[in-house]
Design a protein that fits this description.
The protein is mostly helical. Helices cover 78% and strands 3% of the residues. The protein has four helices and two strands, in the order ααααββ. The protein has a two-stranded antiparallel ribbon with strand order 1-2. Helix 3 packs across helix 4.
């Protein structure tokens, strides 16, 4: 017969092995999703840079508008390059360390970023027209 301590040890080893495999699978999935999001973000920033270059080309060469648009495009290309080469895991580690060392500053910066993002999103929303009821043959549109 098998000793209880031996059976218990086998069960612990089996559970640890399963936990390690699950952790590895989850880590791989998160890494794949993060990489995909990182590449998508870099591609979108690059597309915006290309659009800025195209907009610059519509101005007179050498004009202040063309120079400004090319400068913005250059900064966007730099940002796209940084996003492509960003080490997400190291960035998360750095941000976590900063948050632990400076919790109030981190929370204040996060709140400020949230407010700024909200203002930006509200400013970029298309204006919606109030719902207008259309009348057709003396009745409300869509009614029988």
């Amino acid at each position: 017969m098998t000793d209880t301590p031996d059976l218990e040890s086998q069960a612990r080893n089996y559970a640890k092995d399963l936990g390690d495999k699950a952790k590895s699978a989850i880590s791989d999935t998160v890494r794949e999703k993060t990489d995909a999001a990182q590449h998508q973000a870099a591609a979108e920033v690059q597309t915006t840079a290309d659009a800025a270059h195209a907009a610059a080309d519509t101005f007179d060469p050498g004009s202040i508008q063309a120079q400004a648009a090319h400068m913005v495009a250059g900064h966007l290309e730099d940002a796209a390059r940084r996003v492509r080469t960003l080490d997400i895991e190291q960035t998360v580690t750095d941000v976590s360390g900063f948050a632990r060392r400076n919790p109030l500053l981190f929370l204040g910066a996060a709140a400020l970023a949230g407010f700024a993002a909200t203002r930006f999103l509200k400013a970029s929303e298309p204006e919606t027209q109030p719902y207008a009821t259309h009348h057709h043959n003396g009745g409300t549109y869509g009614s029988s």
